[in-house]
Amino acid sequence: MIFLSNYIYYIGAFGLILIALYILLTRHNLIKKIIGLSILATGVNLLIIAIGYIKEGTAPIFSNPNLNPQNMVDPVPEALVLTAIVISVAVLAMALSLAIRLYKHYRTLDMRKIKEQRW
Amino acid sequence: MVNPILLIAVPLGLAFSIPLFGFVSKKIVKLIPIVGMLFNLIASLILIPKVLNKPIIVKLGGFPPPFCINLFVGPVGILFSCLIALIGLLVSIYAIRYIGAQGKQSNVGQEERYHMLYLLLLAGATGVVLTGDIFNLFVFYEILCISSYALVAYLGDKPGVESASKYLIQGSIGSSFILISIAFLYGQFGTLNMADIAQNINSLTSVQVFFPLILLVTGFGIEATIFPLNAWLPDAHSSAPSTISAILSGIAIEIGIYAIARVVFTLFGAQDFFLFLLMLGLLTLLLGELSAFSQNNIKRMLAYSSAGQMGLILFALGVGTTEGIAGGLFQLITHVLSKALLFLATGFMIYRTGSMEITSLQGIGRKMPLSSLAFTIGAFSLIGLPPFIGFPSKLMIVFSVLLKQNVLYTVFIVIVLIGTVIEGAYFFKVIQALYFKELPTQESSDAQIQEAPLAALIPMVILMALIISIGVYPKIMTGILNSAASEFLDRVAYIKLVLK
């Protein structure tokens, strides 16, 4: 149980990443694939946050002289995650707009039926 | 003295100001990419002698390197930024007439979007090659990727949208792998600076190194079109307009190769990994060339040929000696110039005939002599015939392998040469169709087929001149190639320069 409580965020993050990869590999509907991409991005973001997390840590701001730097949460991963969120929003917006266009052309979002481009 | 940060800032700033210029005048918008890339080209050329003397480290924000994001403008960075600016400039001159014509044909509407995305792609590519921070590299790489997804779908037609969505899904999975790997490296070392990570990487066990390394190579491999990861390539390159295919084939996938080389050589210094890279390169080469051979669609053929060329470059990098890496980078220059020329030459051929099938290009050599000549020179150069640039670069790779004096490597180079023969076969098939076959007898369509406009011919002529002049006198490249190769191999010098 101690292992579980210490590593719960890592387990959660990898769980999300694996679920997302499973969705991306097995689902054929483009919208479901986009949901998979969204879950993948969330999992990766959670992983990055978990790396900098300290239990019962404080924000890295010296608002109070008694604060101990040892207990402060690492701010760099949080900055990284902010950037990563912005990037994933851009990718998802792009993907959804492509899905709309694709539906207008083919009247379906099943990627098995959309195969004009062949090897 | 130009501050190297302007190489990234100017195209990025201009890209976002394009919609504003669009309010003033629609004509001015087409010229902005030309201005931006001309600035980049001149600035990079001015920086070359300085950089060859000593790499420039730019510290952003005024902190010393491990704590700040730094730019590392070494020989490799400046070589790539020159290439990006050169191809960007030539393709944007070509696009003046081409994109307007394409847009009218398929009712796309505003041209601003194209020029803005185009400049963003180039800014992202320049950022990737100049940065010295792994997360910063990821951000610029994403700028490059997102704008290339949008550019593939630019025409908004069936094939474009379909291949862009496939490209987007595969590309985003790759980007997530890169981010996971960055998270691991940060968790291990608490730093994102590449020199700082490289300094400490030896303290890890081999399993701990293997996991982030393989994730990074997989992630960047999707953009670099390494064999099992390149399913998106023929669709995306063939359904985009030709200027975009030229940029994707000439710049975007080379950035993937650069990122892999930077990670494997500088960041990890993974000697044991070279043979694996070499095998991957060999597989990519053979499968790319074989698939190209069986194509009837000319743009698909060129796209598969790009995959084959990437395999050859990866093979040369995997040799792992100074000569091998210099040969790989030389082959990369060959590929950038020749493939851009090939896509530009086919651009107006396809536009005039309205078809991408090789059979419909029969006899076009008499109607469009200069475009056909450009295609022929580009093809000969990629095959590696003298006196074009492809000859010295392929020769350099062959020499570097023979210098190894190892039977295994000699077998490899024989396989590479077989790949070259296949490459020759499919290019000669097209050239034969261009010159020695009769036009299909349709009098009505004959009148429309005429030479490409002047704005499209100028970039082709410049590329032809460059291909021939470097091919005749390859010595001008040796200086920068050798220092670029030693930048990749000499990790200690890289670390010292950044962290001193």
Number of domains of chain A: 1
Question: Radius of gyration of chain B, Cα only, in angstroms?
Answer: 22 Å
- Taking pLDDT < 50 over at least 5 consecutive residues as the criterion, the unreliable ranges of chain B are none
**β content of chain B, as a range?**
under 5%
Structural class of chain A: mainly alpha
Instruction: Give the overall silhouette of chain B.
Output: globular
Instruction: Compute the average pLDDT of chain B.
Output: 89
Count structural domains of chain B. Answer: 1
CATH class placement of chain A: Mainly Alpha
Count the E strands of chain A: 0
Description:
The complex is a heterodimer of chains A (119) and B (500). Chain A is mostly helical and 119 residues long. Chain A has a single domain, classed as Helix Hairpins (Orthogonal Bundle). Helices cover 67% and strands 0% of the residues of chain A. In chain A, α1 runs antiparallel to α2 and α2 packs antiparallel against α3. Chain A starts with a helix and ends in a 13-residue tail after the last helix. The longest helix of chain B has 32 residues. By secondary structure, chain B is mostly helical. Chain B is globular and about 65 Å long. In chain B, α1 packs antiparallel against α4 and α8 runs antiparallel to α10. Chain B is built from 21 helices and 2 strands. At the A-B interface, α1, α2 and α3 of A face α5, α6 and α9 of B.
Outline of this structure?
The complex is a heterodimer of chains A (119) and B (500). By secondary structure, chain A is mostly helical.
What are the defining features of this structure?
heterodimer, A: 119 residues, mainly alpha, Helix Hairpins, 3 helices, B: 500 residues, two-stranded antiparallel ribbon
How are the secondary structure elements laid out?
The complex is a heterodimer of chains A (119) and B (500).
Chain A: H1 2-26, H2 30-52, H3 75-106
Helix pairs in contact in A: 1-2, 2-3
Chain B: H1 5-24, H2 26-53, E1 56-59, E2 70-73, H3 75-106, H4 112-130, H5 134-152, H6 158-189, H7 194-200, H8 206-224, H9 233-239, H10 242-268, H11 274-293, H12 298-319, H13 322-353, H14 364-367, H15 369-383, H16 390-403, H17 407-436, H18 443-446, H19 454-472, H20 475-489, H21 491-499
Antiparallel strand pairs in B: 1-2
Helix pairs in contact in B: 1-2, 1-4, 2-3, 2-4, 3-4, 3-10, 3-13, 3-19, 3-20, 4-5, 4-10, 5-6, 5-10, 6-8, 6-9, 7-21, 8-10, 9-10, 9-12, 10-12, 10-13, 11-12, 11-17, 12-13, 12-17, 13-15, 13-16, 13-19, 13-20, 15-17, 15-19
